Amino acid sequence: MDPIRFWHILNAKQFSRPSLDLIFAETDLMRAHKATTQGRILLKQILADKIICTDFYEASTRTNLSFGSAALSLGAQLLNPNDPEKFSSEVKGESFEDSIRTISRYVDLIVLRHKEIGIAERAAAVSRVPIINAGDGAGQHPTQALLDLYTIKQYRQTINGVSIAMVGDLLHSRTVNSLCYLLAKFDDVTIHFVSPPITAIKPGIKTYLEEHGVNYTDYMSLPEAIDQAEFIYMTRIQEERFSDHSDDYRLAQLAKPDFIIRQAMLPQDSYYPYIMHPLPRDSRVAELNEINYDVDNDPRAIYFDQVENGLYVRMALLKLILSAN
Ligand code: CP
C-alpha cells in the first residue's frame, strides 16, 4: 500500500504520518481558497466531472452536509439518497452489497454512514469506486478524527506532547476510537479517559495505545482531569447504541451529572483547556447538556471550529482521492 496516497477511507489506523501531513497541507489550501472569490472559482474546477453520493442510513447533520458542501465547493455533483433504510430497494429484500454494487456504477465516490460496525469494509469489498466511512455504529469515524486532529494542530501547532481528556460515553464513541488511533501515531501523547464504569473505553483501544507507547490514565471525576489536560474532548451518551430500556442506559444517565462541563470549572487566566466535542450535544434537558451553554462564550470553546474544519478536511480528502484517479 502506498504510504501516502489512499483510495478508500475505512479506519483511522490506515493513515501514515506522511499521509496526515499531506491531508493537513491540502486542508490549509482549501481553507485559504475558500476565503477568496478567486479561490472559490478555482476550486469549482477540481472535481467538475465527478459525482459523489452521500449514502446515509443513520441521522447526521455535520458529516452529511459538510461532505455535500465539500463536493459542491469542488464543482462535483451530489447524489443524496433520501433515507435509504426506508426508501432504497433494500426494503424489498435487496442486499446491502447489491445496493453498493449498483450505486458504484452511477457515481465516482460513496460516502457511507450506517449503524453497523464493519459495514464500510463490506462496501469496499464490492464497490467499483472509493468508499469513505462516515461513521459505522460504535466502530470508526475516521474523517471526524482527522478534523479533530487538524483542530488540535490549529491551536497547538504540534500534536507531539499533547495531553487530552476524553469524557463521557467512551464505550460507544466512534470518534474517540478513531481519534485514539490517530493520536497513537505521535510522540509523548497522554490521554485521560474520564467516564463512569458503564461507558468505559473498550479494552481493545487501550491495548492499541499500549502497543504504540501512548500514556493513558483513567479518571472517574471530571474536575480532576481538567487540571491535567490541554484539551477536553466531551461526548454525548449515545442513547441509540443501548438496547431499549436497558439497565446500562439508566446507569449511564444516572452518572451523567458528574460528567458535565461548566464554565465555572475552567481555570481562570489560562489558555488551557480547550473544549472540544464532535457534536451533536444532547440538549433535550438543558441542565443535562454535557457542555453547559455557559461554556459557549469562553474563548477556549472550539467545538464550532471543529464543525467548520470538517468542511475543509473533507474537501481535501475528496480532492486527494478523486483528482489522483
Ligand atoms: N460529528 C458528527 O458525526 O456529527 P453528525 O452526526 O451530525 O454527522
Write the layout of secondary structure elements.
Layout: H1 17-34, H2 37-43, E1 51-56, H3 62-73, E2 77-79, H4 84-87, H5 96-103, E3 109-114, H6 119-126, E4 131-136, H7 142-156, E5 163-167, H8 174-183, E6 190-194, H9 203-211, E7 215-219, H10 222-226, E8 231-234, H11 247-255, E9 274-276, H12 303-322
Parallel strand pairs: 1-2, 1-3, 3-4, 5-6, 5-8, 6-7, 8-9
Helix pairs in contact: 1-2, 1-12, 3-12, 7-8, 7-12
The structure holds phosphoric acid mono(formamide)ester.
How is this structure best described in words?
- The chain is of the alpha/beta class.
- It is 38% helix and 13% strand.
- It contains twelve helices and nine strands.
- It has helices at 17-34, 37-43, 62-73, 84-87, 96-103, 119-126, 142-156, 174-183, 203-211, 222-226, 247-255, 303-322, and strands at 51-56, 77-79, 109-114, 131-136, 163-167, 190-194, 215-219, 231-234, 274-276.
- Helix 11 (247-255) links the parallel strand 8 (231-234) and strand 9.
- Bound molecules: phosphoric acid mono(formamide)ester (CP).
Give a summary of the structure in a few sentences.
By secondary structure, this protein is an alpha/beta fold. It is built from twelve helices and nine strands. α9 links the parallel β6 (190-194) and β7 (215-219).
Helix content: 25-40%
Cα shape = globular
Over all CA atoms, what is the radius of gyration? 20 Å
**SS content category:** alpha/beta
